Amino acid sequence: MEIQYFGHSSIAIQTNNFNLIVDPFISANPKASNIDIDKLEVDYILLTHAHYDHVLDVERIASRTKAQIISNHEVVSYFEKKDLKGHGMNQGGSWDFEFGRVTVVNAIHSSSFADGTYGGNPVGFILEAEGKSIYLAGDTDLMMDMKLIPMFHKLDLAILPIGGNFTMDVKKAIVASDFIECNKIMGIHYDTSPIIEIDHEEAKRQFSEKDKELILMSIGERMTI
Ligand code: NI
Ligand code: MN
To answer: Which ligand is nearest to the CA of 23?
Structure first.
């Protein structure tokens, strides 16, 4: 599995020859201005919730690429009304897609579209593909429900929000890492605006103190899992 970071919570995942994008918010992120969303190859779009900073580029990408949207029922229905294709799921459900298996898990947050439309419950995803399992937490606080994840999944990587204010911060993400029994964490949802800026070196130090790794990718950077 190859992961490429597009800033904020936007991540491209390439697996089994399919291209996935998670929570595309790129065109309005000045820090991601070197990413041309009109050139991205996308087969599936995974959306954790309806907030603007997670769905902004969905219509632009999906109308060009005909990518299928995977999210909760309400988010998928919203985009189906705009003639885009989707596969609605909800917490507890798993589905085998051609790229791999997706399981929907809980997230503690809110979810509404910019126009006020109800966006269902926010979710996280477990993606299993090419013999690896990754947890995409979405926007969430630390929660006890995270302890359920290692009962069913042995994670190779967890992608957690760490910027605070709207989500958990570094301190809580370290506890989340214990709950999900995964010591390899990629941070997201930080530095996009001043309110969620973090000290990179300090955050990495706090993780390594607990024998954990915090990966902070630069925008456009790729890594293989
Ligand atoms: Ni949000
Ligand atoms: Mn957000």
So the answer is: 2
